[in-house]
Design brief:
Blueprint: E1 2-9, E2 12-17, E3 22-27, E4 43-50, E5 55-61, E6 67-68, E7 73-74, E8 78-84, H1 92-104, E9 108-114, H2 121-133, E10 138-140, H3 149-156, E11 160-164, H4 171-178, E12 204-209, E13 212-216, H5 238-241, H6 261-267, H7 273-287
Parallel strand pairs: 3-5, 8-9, 8-11, 9-10, 11-13
Antiparallel strand pairs: 1-2, 1-4, 2-3, 4-5, 6-7, 12-13
Helix pairs in contact: 1-7
Bound molecules: guanosine-5'-triphosphate, magnesium ion and zinc ion.
Guanosine-5'-triphosphate binds next to helix 4.
């Protein structure tokens, strides 16, 4: 029987099959020989061991359209990366790392800044200016007063979307608003350090309707994106790609080369300074890796 892994906990895979049955499975297929582990989002074939108790074995994983490590998901059509605009304060370096990873994997990404009830309009415009200008769709929401939630619904419609972002930013809260049956656990952030407490501990797919699915995922606080050459990094900053070939040197890495159009654009405010600084930080990180 064919199905999709909608949840994975402690070596058990929950496989959603036709007519809405969910089977609790273990991994027994020959894919294990190749050191491949099933992940949430995988389309699989299962052997039913006990129809009454809905137990089975995953015996085959169908080829993945794509997969991410953080969050650990497969076969998504886009990612919605969620950051809080405050509590916890957004770590833009982490966001830029995530965007690099998504550009590298060629997966569409939409950015959501949640908790806008905690800041004023100026702050919203400031952030919109940075990421909108970089070429991303940015949605501002408040799960508290429902602002922007209908825009999120539109963005998720017809797609298979992984929510991703730090702990405590409101990922599960947003899904609960959109799918009242989801009943996902949400958690307070710590009073003192204003950080999430990793309330969501496993990836789980929520069906919004027959053709729209969202993955709730555990928050993450770090991301290494240095598994490629430093010269590649510039291709993963959308707003740089637009200027391709316009620097004095054709292989310009926009670091310390003369007559660099990217540095020029940063000085003129056409490219965000913060994004460029994160580019340089990441560039150095890749360079120093070896
Ligand atoms: N003020 C405000 N608080 C919010 C908003 N959205 C969520 N919260 C609160 O933020 C806290 C964390 O929300 P969660 O939905 O658990 O966050 P999460 O991103 O799923 O966190 P992890 O599961 O730990 O990764 C909860 O106390 C929510 O009530 C919002 O728009 N405004
Ligand atoms: Mg959560
Ligand atoms: Zn340049």
């Amino acid at each position: 029987m064919k199905g999709k892994i909608i949840k994975a906990i402690a070596g058990f895979y929950y496989v959603h099959c036709e007519d809405d049955a969910v089977y609790e499975c273990k991994a027994k297929g020959k894919f294990r020989k190749d050191d491949i582990k099933p992940i949430v989002g995988d389309n699989v074939e299962i052997d039913v061991l006990d129809e009454d108790k809905k137990k089975g074995n995953v015996i085959k994983i169908f080829e993945r359209k794509n997969e991410l490590i953080r969050p650990l998901v497969a076969n998504i059509s886009q990612a919605l990366v969620v950051f809080a605009i405050a509590d916890p304060m957004p770590n833009f370096n982490l966001l830029d790392r995530f965007l690099v990873m998504m550009e590298r994997n060629e997966i569409d990404v939409v950015i959501c800044f949640n908790k806008i009830d905690l800041v004023n309009q100026d702050r919203i415009m400031e952030i919109k200016n940075v990421y909108g200008k970089a070429g991303y769709k940015v949605i501002f929401t408040s799960a508290k007063d429902r602002r922007g939630i209908s825009e999120i619904e539109e963005t998720l419609s017809g797609k298979t979307t992984a929510l991703a972002g730090p702990s405590g930013v409101g990922k599960s809260s947003i899904i609960n608003l959109i799918s009242p049956n989801a009943n996902l656990k949400t958690g307070e952030i710590s009073e003192k350090i204003k950080r999430g407490k990793n309330t969501t501990t496993h990836v789980e797919i929520v069906a919004l309707n027959d053709y729209s699915f969202v993955f709730d995922t555990p928050g993450f606080s770090s991301l290494y994106v240095n598994d490629f050459e430093k010269e590649e990094l510039k291709n993963y900053f959308r707003e740089f790609v637009f200027f391709n070939g316009k620097c004095r040197f054709s292989g310009c890495n926009h670091v310390s080369e003369p007559d660099c159009i990217i540095k020029n654009a940063v000085d003129k405010g056409i490219i965000s300074k913060g994004r460029y600084v994160n580019y340089l930080l990441l560039y150095d990180e890749i360079k120093n890796k070896n």
